[in-house]
Amino acid sequence: MTIEFATQYRDRSFIPSEPGKPYFIEKGMGDRAHLFNDIFTIYAGGEQTENTFNFFTCEGPKGDIIPAHSHPDTYEVFYITDGAVRLFVEDLEGEQHEKLLTVGDFGFVPKNCPHAYRIERHHSRIVGVAAGPGGTFERFFETLGEPTGELGLPRRTVVPEPHKFGTVPQRYDVNFLPDHKWRTGS
Question: Which letter, b or e, does each residue of 142-154 get, where b requires 16 or more Cβ atoms within 10 Å of its Cβ?
């Protein structure tokens, strides 16, 4: 039996809007949003974990690097379950790191470190977890992108309006770095 809830973000969701309720979600049936060429699926977030962590997936085709950004108060984990993803990270001393992550590989991004990624193989999937004193940022995906009931990748590229990028840092602990340059070579 699957129970549907209403949340402050959606009329229908399988995620309860308050903490303290056990729940189960079938593959792909979390709250979904299209952003760029990817689909993000949220399975747990701030409301369920008292803002201690979130759990989401990102699936997408081979594509362009996503915009460089940082999280002043949030640590982020990248775990690859399908395909390959190139992770770019700059540490707090300014040294840049780049690593191709494939199935089973793990990447950790400390808070305040600029980072970005690029999906290198079609049908890649990242399992993401984010946690930190700043709360969680999972609702960023549907705020910047487009919430969807569809299970697949977007039929068209979803590029946010430029003004949307400015609304994100205060609400979701995501600072975009439009002038950031990666010197790692890829």
Answer: bbbbbebeeeeeb
